[in-house]
Amino acid sequence: MSKTRRLGLGILAVGAGLGFVAGGAPGLAFAAVCLVVGFVMFVVSEARGTTQKDAAQKSERVRETARVLVLVKEVHARPQRNGKFQEIGNIDESGLEFEVFLNCWLLNETDLPLQIVEPIQLTIGASDGSLRFAERVSSDLENWSLGSLVKDTRNGDKVQVVQEKLSELHTAESLECGVPRQGWLHFRFRDIRPSDFCVGPMELIVKDAMSSTHVGRTSGPRHLPGKVWPCIPNSSTKGKIDAAGALVTGRSISGNDSAFQVVSKDEEMEAYYWVVICKNRKFHEQQNIYSGHKIALCETDEFTPPPQMEPFTVRCDECGESQSYDASDLVRFQMPLVPNFKPHPLFA
Asked: What is the pLDDT of residues 66-115, one digit of tens each?
């Protein structure tokens, strides 16, 4: 019982008692005044209690009906090993980590503003039945960009890298009803297989201040490798250290010119090549039983898509056997510069 209600009942009791004792017109008048005051205080107390009860019920209804639409439009992944980009040769390859970038939308479908509570979580179901949680990487999207390759408008023989800035999904401000919020999130998965990333159930989990959980399932495209790349400095700069610990310089791609050179921390030059795996596995299995002997065809870069071409013949530089290969056999591979390297005639 509230203090106001107790006081109102007390005034009613005192007025009735003193009015009975005093008697006559004065006692009746005093009792009437106490009755009015006590009744007013009693009604005020009931009204306050009803208002508080209604507010609590409304808050509970909001908590039960709080709804935030979580939409994952696209997912890009950069496979890495020991901090360096790793070409995927086997979909069940282990020991990799994936820099994962999600383009997300949040839409509050509740009547009241909702505050998102950190941390936002990303999970994926692995092939072994376990649920893997990604590590959230915050406030580093200025080091990454959404890239694409376009033809130079002034020279059709050249290709330029176009970089689009990534805006982080900000959750500090409350979500207003019906106002969508869009942005990118960066996560890192450790020790999952490429096949897990491609087909494993992936969920983005968002919690609000009302303790409600909202889940968005990634039904959109998953790009592996993705189009989110470390930012490439302008040609006017001398270079910068990218997320893989390499010095990268950017230029236009022209002919056989290698568009990007990667320098490891120990200053050893490493270049990207289009290679094929020699089909004479019996000869090479003692040398490299897992990934086979790689025959370099031409230099490339980290971003250029593989060429579409008819079947071609390549002679192995080690076993000497010639085999036929398709465009699907091409693999991008990073390795030390090949001395006196001559590209395959089809790529020259």
From this structure: 889 999 999 999 998 888 888 887 888 888 999 999 999 999 988 889 99
Which pTM value belongs to this model? 0.54
Q: What angle do CA 223, 299, 241 make, to 5 degrees?
A: 65
Type of residue found at 251: R
User: Beta strands 68-81 and 222-223: pairing type?
Assistant: parallel
List, for residues 147-172, the tens digit of each pLDDT value: 776 666 666 555 566 778 899 999 88
Is omega for the bond preceding 225 within 30 degrees of 0, making it cis? Answer: yes
Please, how many CA atoms are within 13 Å of residue 280, restricted to the half-sphere of its CB?
Answer: 14
CA angle centred on 315, ends 313 and 319, rounded to 5°: 145
The answer to whether 55 and 200 are in contact (CB under 8 A) is no
CA distances from 30 to 37, 105, 175, 273 (A): 11, 68, 57, 104
Are the C-beta atoms of 250 and 260 separated by less than 8 Å? yes
Burial of 302 (0-12, 13-18, 19+ CB in 10 A): buried
